[in-house]
Every structure is written in C-alpha cells, then in structure tokens.
Amino acid sequence: KGDPRLQGISQAIRVVPHFPKPGIMFQDITTLLLDHKAFKDTVDIFVDRYRGMNISVVAGVEARGFMFGPSIALSIGAKFVPLRKPRKLPGEVISEAYDLEYGTDCLEMQIDAVKTGERALVIDDLVATGGTLSAAIRLLERMGAEVVECACVVGLREVKGQRRLDGKPLYILVEPR
Ligand code: PRP
User: What is the Cα–Cα distance from 174 to 177, expressed in whole angstroms?
Assistant: First the structure.
C-alpha cells in the first residue's frame, strides 16, 4: 500500500453522488481511462503482481472488467475470457446467479473457454458485496479452473479488511473513504 502510484489512481477516479440512484456514491472509472498515466499505472501494478504466476486465464466481468482485463492478459501471456450478462454469449454456456439489492442477476461463461487445471485471475473494476466476484469464481471452478486471486481497482468499505472471497484472495488497489 506504500506504492506512490496509488494516490494518482485514486485521484483519477471520479465520485458521482446520487448515481445511478439517490444515495449511491458512484465510483466512476471512466475518468481513470482518460488519464493515460493513471490508467497505465493501474494495469502495470496488476501486471507486475501477476506475471510469473503461471496464470493462463484472465476472466473479466462485464462490463467494466472488460476495460482492464485484456491489457493485463496480453502482458502476462494469458488468454482473456469474458464473463457476460445472460444471453450475450453464443454456444454452450454455464450460468451462475447472484443477488442484487433488488432481485438477482446472472453471469455466463462459454464452456470451451477454460480447461481443467488452468490457473485463472478474475478482474473487475469494483467490489462491493462480492456477489459478482463469487459468481465468477463459481463459473471458473465448475469448469475445473483454479482461481488464483480476484483483483479490483476499487474496493468499497463493506469489504474493507476482508481480503478473501469464498476462500480466494482478493486484491484491491484503492478504497474510497
Ligand atoms: C458493478 C461493478 C461490479 C459489481 C460489484 O457492476 O462493476 O461488477 O457491480 O458489485 P458486488 O460486489 O456487490 O457484486 P454493475 O452491476 O453495475 O454492472 P455493469 O458493470 O454491467 O454496469
């Protein structure tokens, strides 16, 4: 946490009060994407952490995991696997539901994307309850992959201090106050 790049990353994330609903302090990573240094620092920190760990799969969560995952995958020599919202992926898929504040949602993965024994990293922009990442972990494990870690740019305070998710390590760059 002593990395001097983290402050710049934190400052590049815009906080939008009452979006998309009253009372929500939205952590907007689009401003991070507009800031070349902060965006590159973000990807570099993940790449430095995960290169040399024999990871063959970077699985990104729709939609904002798609904005970080492919760059990391290319740099560490892994493939990128999109975990998508329902009915977006063709072919045979497996699904995992997860709870939202009101109701449930679902992530899907193509069954031929990952093979038994592959080592996977799950990436998303943000973790709040961890429900989304838990569904991602279940998808990969159902196909026999080993989830080495989950990584997010932002961790909300609900999970502060909690560095594991369903028994998997959780790596977070910044925690808004
Ligand atoms: C946000 C965020 C994570 C998820 C985290 O996605 O990008 O994927 O919520 O919440 P959790 O830890 O409580 O599960 P959102 O549901 O807004 O979907 P989107 O990225 O497709 O807009």
Answer: 10
Q: In CATH, what class is 54-174?
A: alpha beta
- By annotation, the residues acting in catalysis are 64, 101
Q: Which tokens is 52 given? A: 């040399």
Cβ atoms of 32 and 13 within 8 Å: the answer is yes
**From atom 2 of ligand 1, which residue's Cα is the shortest distance away?**
126
Helix (H/G/I), strand (E/B), else coil: 138: helix
Yes or no: say if 120 and 57 are a contact pair by the CB < 8 Å rule. yes
Distance 144 CA to ligand 1 centre (A): 25
Q: Say if ligand 1 is within 6 A of residue 100 CB.
A: no
141 phi, psi to nearest 5 deg: -70, -35
Per-residue confidence at 46, pLDDT binned at 50, 70, 90? very high
Ligand 1 pocket, residue 97 CB under 6 Å: no
ipTM strictly over 0.90?
A: yes
Token couple for 24:
């929500």
